[in-house]
Amino acid sequence: MRLLDLSDLPHRPIEAHGSHGFSVGAFGISADAHLIAVALVPGGTIGRHPAAGRQLLVVLTGEAEVSGAELTVRRIGPGQAAVWEPGEVHETRSPRGMTGMIVEGDLDIGAPGEQVDPGDV
């Protein structure tokens, strides 16, 4: 077994699409999905851009203000997530800062638990 501390992953700043105060660190990449640790400083923004694949943003600490194609801004906090569909233009901001995880790729979001882990039978 290995333990990972997301804050210890090498992060790199991202400024594309007008982003600022935003950094990423990959901790898992496969042919079908990317698992990425993200951090937004207070006032940081992930600028509007299209999702390359289905994208799930899970907030671990802090809070995020997220919007999708409809431009409605929703606030999410720890234990909550936003899902964007492939090609959907979206944006994330964090007035107070946030750490989270993005999973992007060929995902079936909301699959019943028995499909993920059938348990002992």
Write structural notes for this entry.
With 121 residues, the protein is mainly β. It has a domain of 74 residues: Jelly Rolls, CATH 2.60.120.10. Helix content is 3%, strand content 54%. The chain is built from 1 helix and 9 strands; from the N terminus they run E-E-E-E-E-E-E-E-E-H. Strands 1, 2, 3, 4, 5, 6, 7, 8 and 9 form a 9-stranded antiparallel sheet that branches. Strand 1 and strand 2 form a beta hairpin. It is globular, with a radius of gyration of 15 Å. 19% of the residues are buried.
How would you summarize this macromolecular structure in one to three sentences?
This is Cupin domain-containing protein. The protein is mainly beta.
Q: Which shape, going by the Cα principal axes?
A: globular
Radius of gyration: 15 Å
Q: On the 0-100 scale, what is the average pLDDT?
A: 87
Number of strands: 9
Number of helices: 1
SS-based class: mainly beta
How is the biggest beta sheet arranged?
9 strands, antiparallel
CATH class of the domain at 34-107: Mainly Beta
Named CATH topology of the domain at 34-107: Jelly Rolls
Low-pLDDT segments: none
Order of helices and strands: EEEEEEEEEH
Organism: Nocardioides zhouii
Protein name: Cupin domain-containing protein
List its traits.
RmlC-like_jellyroll; Cupin domain-containing protein; RmlC_Cupin_sf; 1 helix; nine-stranded antiparallel sheet; 9 strands; mainly beta; 3% helix; Jelly Rolls; 121 residues
Helix-strand blueprint:
Layout: E1 12-14, E2 20-29, E3 33-50, E4 54-62, E5 64-67, E6 74-76, E7 81-84, E8 89-94, E9 98-105, H1 113-116
